[in-house]
Design goal:
six-stranded mixed β-sheet; five-stranded mixed β-sheet; 13 strands; globular
Length: about 325
C-alpha cells in the first residue's frame, strides 16, 4: 500500500547528509545518511554534488516509505546564509525535474536548529558545538548573532573553550600568571610535550575541531581548578550575550540550548543558566524538543499543508513555489 504523496527533509552539514522521506499523516517514515559532506567551491555550496548524493538516496527512501511522489521539500544546510547562492538558484528547479517537487524551503542550519528546538514560536536558540551561533525570531524577522568562525568569533564554543584551555596550559608551562597545572598535564597527555603544540596545531586544516577536542578536558578540570571554572563561566557569558542579542524583547519568549557542547554537563550549563536569568529575565529556558533534522521535517510538513508561519528571509529561510503549485 503506498501513499500518493509525501515530503522530503534534508540536513546537510560538515559530517554529511541526513535525509528523511515521510507523509503528513504518518510523519518521517524512512531515513538515510551519507558521511560525505557536500563540496564547497568558488560558487559556494555545490548544487551538482548535492544532487549527485541526494537523488539515489531519495529514490530508495521513496520506495521504502511507499511514497509515489513528493510535494514539498525542506533543505537545511550549514553555510546556506553565506555560501548558498548557487543552491538557491539551482536546487528548486533540480528537485522539480527529478521528483516533481513544487514547494521547496531552503534554510540555514541555524533556522532548522531553531525549529527543531522550539518550533514556530518566538524565542532564541543557542546552537553550540565546535562553533557557536545564536538565532532568534519574533515571527516577523530572523536575527542571528556570532557564528563568525574560530578566528573572528564563535565565542563560548567548543573551539573557544579549547583554545582558552590550551592557553592556560601554556601559561603554566611558561610560569606566567593565569596558568593551570591541571590543564597543562591534560594537554600534554592528549597532544604531547607543550613545546610541540604550535607545530601540531597551526598547520592543521581542521584546527577548530582540534581545539574543540580539548574542551571536555577543561570541563573535567572545572570542579577543582579555578582557572578551568573561570573559562567555562566566561564561555557562559559569551553565550548569554549572543542569546540576548537575538531574543525578542517583548512577551514571554522561550530560550533553548542545542548542540553537542552541552553534553559537557553542569560545569557549563549551570553558569549559562545563571547568566541567561540575568540577561533575559522575561524569557523561559526550555529543553530543545529536537535537532536540525527534526526542524527540516517540521518545515517540510508545514510547507506541504500550507501551515508554514515562519518569516521568510533571502539568506536564512527562502521558500520557492514552482509553476505547478
Amino acid at each position: 500500500m503506498t501513499d500518493p504523496s509525501g515530503f522530503l527533509a534534508v540536513d546537510s552539514g560538515g559530517s554529511g547528509l541526513r535525509v528523511v522521506v515521510g507523509t503528513v499523516g504518518r510523519g518521517a517514515t524512512a531515513r538515510r545518511e551519507s558521511r560525505e559532506p557536500v563540496r564547497t567551491g568558488d560558487r559556494g555550496i555545490d548544487p551538482g554534488h548535492f544532487m549527485e548524493q541526494l537523488v539515489p538516496m531519495v529514490r530508495a527512501l521513496m520506495a521504502e516509505a511507499g511514497v509515489d511522489r513528493l510535494d514539498a521539500a525542506a533543505v537545511g544546510a550549514a553555510g546556506m546564509a553565506s555560501l548558498g547562492d548557487a543552491l538557491r538558484a539551482e536546487l528548486p528547479d533540480a528537485l522539480g525535474r527529478e521528483f516533481g517537487i513544487g514547494r521547496v524551503a531552503l534554510a540555514a542550519d541555524a533556522v532548522t536548529a531553531y525549529v527543531g528546538a522550539l518550533g514556530p514560536r518566538p524565542g532564541a536558540v543557542v546552537a553550540a558545538g565546535t562553533g557557536l551561533i545564536a538565532i532568534g525570531t519574533d515571527l516577523a524577522n530572523w536575527r542571528r548573532a556570532d557564528g563568525w568562525g574560530h578566528l573572528l568569533g564563535d565565542c563560548g564554543s567548543g573551539a573557544w573553550i579549547g583554545r582558552a584551555g590550551l592557553e592556560a596550559a601554556l601559561r603554566a608551562y611558561d610560569g606566567r600568571p593565569g596558568g593551570s597545572a591541571g590543564l597543562l598535564a591534560r594537554a600534554e597527555e592528549l597532544f604531547g610535550p607543550a613545546r610541540s603544540l604550535p607545530g601540531k596545531l597551526y598547520p592543521r586544516p581542521d584546527r577548530p575541531a582540534v581545539l574543540a577536542s580539548f574542551a571536555p578536558q577543561v570541563a573535567a578540570c572545572a570542579d577543582g581548578d579555578p582557572v578551568a571554572a573561570d573559562i567555562l563561566r566566561a564561555a557562559a557569558r559569551h553565550m548569554a550575550d549572543s542569546a540576548a542579542a537575538v531574543c525578542p524583547t517583548t512577551g514571554e519568549p522561550q530560550v533553548a540550548l542545542t548542540g553537542g557542547l552541552f553534553k559537557m554537563g553542569d560545569s557549563l550549563v549551570v553558569p549559562l543558566q545563571e547568566e541567561l536569568a540575568k540577561r533575559l529575565p522575561a524569557a523561559r529556558t526550555v529543553s530543545a524538543a529536537g535537532d536540525p533534522l527534526d526542524g527540516s521535517v517540521r518545515i517540510a510538513t508545514d510547507l506541504a499543508t500550507d501551515a508554514l508561519t515562519l518569516p521568510s528571509d533571502e539568506a536564512m529561510l527562502c521558500v520557492v513555489i514552482g509553476k505547478g503549485d
